[in-house]
Amino acid sequence: MVPTEPNAKKRPRASLELEQPDIAAYTDLKLLYDHVSSLTSVVIQLREAVLEHGSAKLKEKVAATCESMPVLAALGLPIPASSIASSEPLLTPTPFTFGLNAKPSYASAVASSLPARSDPVSIAKVAVSMLEKSSRAVIERLPDSKDEHQDQKDLAFCQAIAQGNSLPTPLKVHRHPCNSRYRPLKLQFNNKGERDTFIAGFNRIRRSDTSITAIETSPRIRRDLTLDELKTLRTSRKFVYDENKKAGKTNFIMSDIFYKTNPNPRPFV
């Protein structure tokens, strides 16, 4: 029996896998680059728009905490696969599987979710508006003479309530421009915490503080709302009023812009 020659030793599979470079398809990389580049551009323009249109306090905070971002450098040209030295065939899977059951790569999925056009200035204005609303309260049904001294009278009224009840004092006030008989009064505070404390305090004393109870229109307070939130508020208020009037007692009460069941109903008047 003729002895066979021993097989040549093979390198372990693990060593081959360690030597393989991490390679992605250029088309996939290009999609990811375009996505990141688009986001970078939006962030840059958003920062500039906030610094231009935001309040002084917001501008100062953004300038101090958000450094300007550089624009991404251009993506290099693809390198032919034949120029990549490798002793074994590449095991990188193809990034796309075409057909009815095709499953796109992560980069293509993210890129396809981007809006066709971005408007950073509009986004910035909405962001600034939301930030300002978060520290603003609104008093409704407060008598309104609509003269040039109305803001001064309103500020004095709010300051007196704040000082007399140990509540935060609003920085400024103004009447919302509209055709209502009693234009809503907007109160600007330093932050959301002060705004919330004032609203809670006003609701606590509005039936006991003589400066409020003496007003025949019964002023009420809420946070500043978006248009969609205002629609929800009006719908909730109408439901509460109609249902309580029908039942002759306060079965429902308001909670922010929504309504809830009243655990202790009282006669409806």
- What would you call the shape? elongated
Number of strands: 6
Order of helices and strands: HHHHHEHEEHHEHEE
- What ranges have pLDDT less than 50 throughout 5 or more consecutive residues? 13-18, 86-116
Whole-number total of structural domains: 3
Radius of gyration: 32 Å
CATH superfamily of the largest domain: L1 transposable element, RRM domain
CATH architecture identity of the largest domain: 2-Layer Sandwich
User: Number of DSSP helices?
Assistant: 9
Q: Please state the average pLDDT score.
A: 78
Biggest pleated sheet:
4 strands, antiparallel
Strand content: 5-15%
Kindly provide the name of the CATH class of the largest domain: Alpha Beta
Largest sheet strand order: 2-3-1-4
Q: Span between N and C termini?
A: 114 Å
Give the fraction of residues assigned to helices.
40-55%
Structural class: alpha+beta
- What do we call the CATH topology of the largest domain? Alpha-Beta Plaits
Any overview of this molecule?
There is one protein chain. The chain is an alpha+beta fold and 269 residues long. It has three domains: 23-73 and 104-132, no CATH class; 134-224, Alpha-Beta Plaits (2-Layer Sandwich), CATH 3.30.70; 225-269, no CATH class. It is built from nine helices and six strands; from the N terminus they run αααααβαββααβαββ. It has a four-stranded antiparallel β-sheet with strand order 2-3-1-4, covered by helices on one side. A hairpin with a 2-residue loop joins β5 (252-255) and β6 (258-261). α2 (26-53) runs antiparallel to α3.
